[in-house]
Design brief:
Elements (H helix, E strand, L loop, with lengths): L2 H11 L4 E4 L6 H9 L4 E4 L3 H15 L3 E5 L3 H4 L2 H9 L4 E7 L21 H5 L5 E4 L6 H13 L6 E6 H4 L15 H4 L8 H12 L4 E5 L2 H4 L3 H11 L3 E3 L14 E4 L6 H9 L2 E5 L5 H4 L11 E6 L13 E4 L2 H15 L6 H13 L14 H11 L4 E5 L3 H9 L7 E3 L10 H11 L4 E7 L2 H4 L4 H7 L3 E7 L4 H10 L16 H7 L3 E5 L8 H6 L4 E6 L25 H7 L8
Parallel strand pairs: 1-2, 1-3, 3-4, 4-6, 5-6, 7-8, 7-10, 8-9, 10-11, 11-12, 13-14, 13-15, 15-16, 16-18, 17-18
């Protein structure tokens, strides 16, 4: 059996239905094997970066590993941004890159290159993968594939890469003679993680003695497939819950205990909840400065912080934690729920929840906007929330559009929101939505992007047209790179180099026409109602939303302030009224 054929059969056997990539000389054997196989698709993008993002979107929605392929040299290096995105956001993806024949590969380290397009991609991406290796022995292909799949999904998930020389791809192998990873001592020696009873008992006692608890949900909940267990935990205890950027779609926003998105750009009421709590239960969040602020001693400063994460290197390093628990969230919350039910404990946090309702009413993320000549981005997001199908998947790009959506979209129980967090790559929105479509073809897929982000991977409009993918692409168009423009206004005397000056935007309706995609331009607030039908039909649309050139994301945390003190600053008297604990004093 040809080795490249074996790889395809292996992927099919592990539930992979779609492979994303771009054709090239060093990967032709593998791509040809995909085309000749039944039950698996090859989706050819127009840039390898887009293929990597598509594989990530597929992985996030399918619950399986995302697979992407590219040729050697520039094809492989074009994957790097996508690999980094999957690594920082802990998404299991397998990248299969072509390489020159083993007999062409450089024999001396001092030689820069021997074969055409030869590039040592394994060394380049080692810091941003969980596992990467060049396959030089055809008889070890089963071992490498099984090990790659296992490592990508085991513990804290992440990307893996196999680099495949052309002579290895075309080699003949006997599948019955191959030895796999699961038969090795390396696998058999793996330690199976268990929940520590003491950790669960300690947390239950903390909840029992708390008056103002808050659950802080990060992306780890989705990664561990613990969404249902989390909802049970919230229902059992009645503890209010806030989310990080990566955890926004882990909780039904219609749940009575949901208190919004917290952090530097989070909802003001959410940050007040965290600031005033006496117990903070952190589930699957890295607690970066975007959650804690740069002055970490101000964060939840009178709370006992309990941090549960599968990665021990993320525990007790950024803030002072009362209890640090290394454990898979699904296992931990399941055990916690069972013990809570068996304990017959009753909790009443109604007075605390009433206080949070006051915050929420006082500081909404949007307000009804009277000026019909200009669109309020936050109200726009709230309005389209009401229009989106219950089975919608929203894919966000990076920039002001991402924050407006994260602040003001109200997600129903089965809706998903894909955010790129750690890498923060512009151009993520459209290709991730393509991947999402192949994972959930019966869902309604919506992209929210900016005029900058859409231009990063605009060539993928041709993929949408060619494959007849019904995407709704909403472009929040302020004719600038709004997030950085705001920084320039604050710190560089409004010198808008590269954000307004030296930056321009094409006519997106004409571009959509060239790609054969329908378009609509929204200029006024009262036009938003026109979107309802278009967001829910089976056609592709580009929706160009004209904004003011000068737009802002508010509230926003300034340097050297605690998370409850966002800009625009409220009066010190009003801040004091909001605080149950003392105002932070450095």
């Amino acid at each position: 059996m040809k080795l490249s054929d074996y790889i395809v059969e292996f992927l099919k056997g592990h539930g992979v239905t779609t492979i994303f990539g771009y054709q090239g000389g060093a990967i032709t054997h593998f791509v040809n094997s995909i085309y000749e196989a039944d039950g698996i698709k090859f989706i050819s993008n127009y840039h390898e970066q887009a293929s990597a993002f598509a594989a990530e979107g597929y992985a996030r929605l399918s619950g399986n590993i995302g697979v992407c392929t590219a040729t050697s040299g520039p094809g492989a290096t074009n994957l790097i941004t996508g690999i980094g995105s999957a690594f920082f956001d802990s998404i299991p993806c397998l990248y299969l890159t072509g390489q020159v024949n083993t007999y062409e590969y450089k024999r001396l380290k001092e030689i820069r290159q021997e074969g055409f397009q030869e590039t040592d991609i394994v060394s380049i991406i080692k810091p941003i993968t969980k596992y990467s290796v060049m396959v030089t022995k055809p008889e070890k292909i089963k071992y490498y594939l099984e090990k790659a799949f296992y490592i990508a999904k085991e513990g804290r998930p992440g990307p893996v890469l196999l680099d495949m020389p052309m002579d290895v791809q075309r080699a003949e192998i006997n599948p019955d003679e191959l030895i796999g990873f699961y038969e090795s001592e390396e696998y058999k020696s793996k330690i199976i993680q268990k929940v520590k009873v003491k950790d669960v008992n300690d947390l239950i006692n903390l909840i029992k003695n708390s008056k103002r608890p808050v659950i802080l949900v990060g992306g780890g909940i989705r990664l561990s497939k613990a969404e249902k267990k989390l909802e049970e935990f919230i229902d059992i205890t009645g503890i209010p819950v806030v989310c990080t950027l990566m955890g926004i779609d882990c909780v039904n926003h219609e749940h009575k205990c949901f208190v919004g998105y917290m952090g530097s750009y989070g909802n003001r009421y959410s940050n007040l909840a965290v600031a005033n709590c006496d117990l903070l239960i952190v589930l699957g969040s890295r607690l970066t400065t975007r959650q804690t602020s740069s002055i970490t001693d101000s964060f939840a400063r009178e709370a006992k912080i309990v941090h549960v994460d599968i990665d021990k290197s993320e525990l007790n390093i950024k803030v002072k934690e009362y209890l640090s628990i290394e454990c898979d969230l699904n296992l931990f919350i399941d055990k916690l729920n069972k013990d809570l039910v068996n304990s017959n404990l009753k909790f009443d946090f109604s007075s605390w929840i009433d206080k949070l309702k006051i915050y929420k009413k006082k500081y909404p993320s949007y307000e009804t906007y009277k000026d019909i000549d200009h669109i309020n981005p936050n109200e726009f997001m709230n309005r389209i929330s009401e229009m989106l199908h219950a089975n919608s998947i929203i894919c966000l790009d990076i920039g002001q559009n991402q924050i407006w959506a994260s602040q003001s979209l109200k997600l129903k129980k089965n809706q998903r929101l894909l955010n790129a967090g750690g890498m923060g790559p512009m151009g993520f929105g459209v290709p991730s939505a393509i991947g999402a479509f192949y994972a959930r073809p019966n869902s309604k897929i919506v992209v929210i992007t900016g005029d900058g982000g859409i231009q990063m991977n605009i060539q993928e409009l041709q993929t949408i047209t060619r494959e007849k993918i019904p995407l709704k692409i909403i472009i929040m168009n302020n004719h600038s790179l709004g997030m950085i423009r705001h920084f320039q206004e604050m710190y560089f005397e409004s010198n808008y180099y590269g954000t307004i000056d030296g930056y321009s935007v094409p006519d997106f309706t004409k571009i959509s026409e060239a790609y054969g995609i329908k378009s609509l331009k929204i200029r006024e607030q009262n036009q938003i109602n026109e979107l309802k039908e278009k967001l829910n039909d089976d056609e592709s649309y580009i929706i160009d939303v004209e904004l003011k050139d000068i737009t802002y994301v508010i509230p926003k945390l300034g340097m050297g302030r605690p998370i409850e003190d966002q800009e625009p600053l409220i009066s010190r008297e009003e801040l004091k009224e909001n605080m149950i604990i003392d105002i932070y004093k450095p």
